[in-house]
Amino acid sequence: MLQIPPVADVHGHLVFACGSSLYAVPADTASEVVNLPSLTRVPGAPQHLLGVFAHRGEVLPVVDLTRLTGHPLDEAFKRAVLVRTPRGAVALPASRVLGVTTLEGSFERLGDTGVHQHLRGPARAAAGEVAIIDTQTFIEFLSTAG
């Protein structure tokens, strides 16, 4: 079995919790953390799309990571991390935001199907094990996921 040595992160990541799981996005893609206003539901949308809201003249989708990863949670999120890439923007609800830090560990894909192919890890932060969201491919995945 090939051993992949731990990798140190040279760029910071914004670490946040969604339910009991920790996630991270590259700090340069996390544009801000906002308080979530009331959401407008989208008829016929998949369950992971909680709704949309207007922010500074832009309509942003709110995507629930717990539902995408198969760990539904009946928690009312009050905040979200806004993630921006050249392919688009999305709001990811957060139960806690832990801040920007460097990560260590493996940055390999966590799976071969669904959302898991856009998560990397396991990485480690002071708060525990973290799944890193590959923001570019994640947003492309969301645009095709039903």
Explain what the structure shows.
This protein has 146 residues and is mostly beta strands. The chain has one domain: OB fold (Dihydrolipoamide Acetyltransferase, E2P) (Beta Barrel), CATH 2.40.50. It is 10% helix and 49% strand. The chain has a 7-stranded mixed beta sheet with strand order 1-10-11-12-3-2-9, with no helix packed on it. Strands 4-7-8 form a 3-stranded antiparallel beta sheet. Strand 7 and strand 8 form a beta hairpin. The protein is globular, with a radius of gyration of 15 Å. The N and C termini lie far apart (36 Å). The N terminus is likely disordered.
Reconstruct the topology from this structure:
Layout: E1 7-8, E2 13-18, E3 21-26, E4 30-35, E5 49-55, E6 58-63, H1 65-68, E7 79-85, E8 88-94, E9 96-101, E10 104-109, E11 119-125, E12 128-133, H2 135-144
Parallel strand pairs: 3-12
Antiparallel strand pairs: 1-10, 2-3, 2-9, 4-7, 5-6, 7-8, 10-11, 11-12
